[in-house]
């Protein structure tokens, strides 16, 4: 099952790097940039996180809040946040519950080898919790993602 434009996003998104439950209602009235990425500290994921970090103040001014999601552990997220000075929450989705709900976890292929992994996908959720835009894996520009989110 995958969520689509027009669907209501779940209230409980998951637990962040500090073990705090993150709820959509924590950001009522703001647009939430919920971005799913494959792995902390990898080149593409680092470029994407740093692009969102660099544009974070401007995104907040425009009414957005950024939340990242990967299957990495809380400890991995904490190191990633510290290393790159990331100002936003990272949800740990080790059980892939949120990823499967949003349809971002599935079979991938690299060099002919198939494996399960995260599809780099960003969901823009409006202030009422409705998905209003999806930036698909083919559309995500990791180096300019902050500008893609709110052009």
Helix/strand class: alpha+beta
3D shape: globular
Strand content: 25-35%
Main sheet?
A: 7 strands, mixed
The N- to C-terminal Cα distance equals 29 Å
Low-confidence stretches: none
What do these coordinates show?
There is one protein chain. The protein has about 150 residues and is of the alpha+beta class. Helices cover about 25% and strands about 30% of the residues. The chain contains 5 helices and 9 strands, in the order E-E-E-H-H-E-H-E-H-E-E-E-E-H. The protein has helices at about 45-55, 55-60, 75-85, 95-100, 145-150; strands spanning about 10-15, 20-25, 30-35, 65-70, 90, 105-110, 115-120, 120-125, 130-135. A 7-stranded mixed β-sheet has the order 2-1-5-4-3-8-9. A two-stranded antiparallel ribbon has the order 6-7. It is globular. It starts with 11 loop residues before the first strand and ends with a helix.
């Amino acid at each position: 099952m995958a969520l689509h434009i027009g669907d209501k996003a779940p209230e409980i998104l998951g637990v962040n790097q500090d073990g705090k439950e993150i709820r959509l209602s924590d950001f009522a009235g703001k647009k939430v940039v919920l971005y799913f990425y494959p792995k902390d500290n990898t080149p593409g994921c680092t470029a994407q996180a740093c692009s969102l970090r660099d544009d974070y103040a401007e995104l907040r001014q425009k009414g957005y809040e950024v939340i990242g999601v990967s299957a990495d552990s809380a400890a991995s997220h904490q190191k990633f946040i510290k290393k790159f000075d990331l100002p936003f929450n990272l949800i740990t989705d080790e059980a892939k519950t949120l990823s499967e709900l949003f349809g971002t976890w599935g079979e991938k292929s690299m060099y002919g080898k198939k494996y399960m992994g995260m599809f780099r996908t960003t969901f823009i959720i409006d202030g009422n919790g409705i998905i209003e835009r999806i930036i698909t894996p083919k559309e995500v520009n990791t180096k300019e993602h902050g500008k893609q989110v709110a052009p």
